[in-house]
Specification:
The complex is a heterodimer of chains A (113) and B (114). Chain A starts with a strand and ends with a strand. Chain A is mainly β. In chain A, the strands form two sheets. In chain A, strands 2, 4, 5, 6, 9, 10 and 11 form a seven-stranded mixed beta sheet that branches. Chain A has a four-stranded antiparallel beta sheet with strand order 1-3-8-7, with no helix packed on it. In chain A, β5 (42-51) and β6 form a beta hairpin. The radius of gyration of chain A is 13 Å and the shape is globular. Helices cover 0% and strands 50% of the residues of chain A. Chain B is mainly β and 114 residues long. In chain B, the strands form two sheets. In chain B, strands 2, 4, 5, 9, 10 and 11 form a six-stranded mixed beta sheet that branches. A five-stranded antiparallel beta sheet of chain B has the order 1-3-8-7-6, with no helix packed on it. Chain B starts with a strand and ends with a strand. The relative contact order of chain B is 0.34. The chains are: A mainly beta (113), B mainly beta (114). The A-B interface holds A 4, 31, 33, 35, 40-45, 48, 50, 56, 58-59, 90, 92, 94, 99-107 and B 32, 34, 36, 41-46, 49, 51, 88, 90, 92, 94, 98-102, 104-107.
Chain lengths: 113, 114
């Protein structure tokens, strides 16, 4: 089944404790991205990757890092999480050079205490 | 002014009704238009995808784009309780420096009652 997977699905952590949220897709897509979803603000892009070893900032990149060492994986790293990063996070991917149909993962609900 | 505006609802309709969901936008560069459905505690699921203006139909769903008015719509015919979800519109330019970032509306919550 073609899908985007994320782990963990739920995470509660404390301020300053480094964490990584993994994202993997099995559709051989070149493009992957991360969004966060907050009440009243909607979905906003954090980082994106056009292909392996090519990443760039989205609209809200502060406090986040990413890496793209393999085509299928695009982890999101919070090196020193803070309470304002409590949110619902989604990974998305798209294939091909034309169009913009993006497919989303199931989400990771992060709480930073 | 936000680039994409969407009435948050909630919208409550009886089963079998025709549902109309809408978004307006301000960026005339938007060329790709999408509707996503999001159930509680789930990821957005792509429902409809349209390039530029026109209509697209898929089963009970019809998407319309009017670029002259900067207005897009999603119609759901014969609505079912299983259609109860939040519907998100999303759009983007065909080419941009922002890496295919989708500009989302805040979502409309729909409840279809039996």
């Amino acid at each position: 089944e073609a899908q985007v997977t994320q782990n963990p699905r739920y995470l509660i952590t404390v301020t300053g404790k480094k964490l990584t949220v993994t994202c993997s897709q099995n559709m051989n897509h070149e493009y992957m991205s991360w969004y966060r979803q907050d009440p009243g603000l909607g979905l906003r892009q954090i980082y994106y990757s056009m292909n392996v070893e090519v990443t760039d900032k989205g609209d809200v990149p502060e406090g986040y890092k990413v890496s793209r060492k393999e085509k299928r994986n695009f982890p999101l790293i919070l090196e020193s999480p803070s309470p304002n990063q409590t949110s619902l996070y989604f990974c998305a991917s798209k294939g091909g050079l034309v169009g913009n149909e993006q497919f989303f993962g199931p989400g990771t609900r992060l709480t930073v205490l | 002014q936000k680039e994409v505006e969407q009435d948050p609802g909630p919208l409550s309709v009886p089963e079998g009704a025709i549902v109309s969901l809408n978004c307006t936008y301000s960026n005339s560069a938007f060329q790709y238009f999408m509707w996503y459905r999001q159930y509680s505690r789930k990821g957005p699921e792509l429902l409809m995808y349209t390039y530029s203006s026109g209509n697209k139909e898929d089963g009970r769903f019809t998407a319309q784009v009017d670029k002259s008015s900067k207005y897009i719509s999603l119609f759901i015919r014969d609505s079912q309780p299983s259609d109860s979800a939040t519907y998100l519109c999303a759009m983007s330019p065909s080419r941009s420096n922002s890496g295919y970032a989708l500009n989302f509306g805040k979502g409309t919550s729909l409840l279809v009652t039996p």
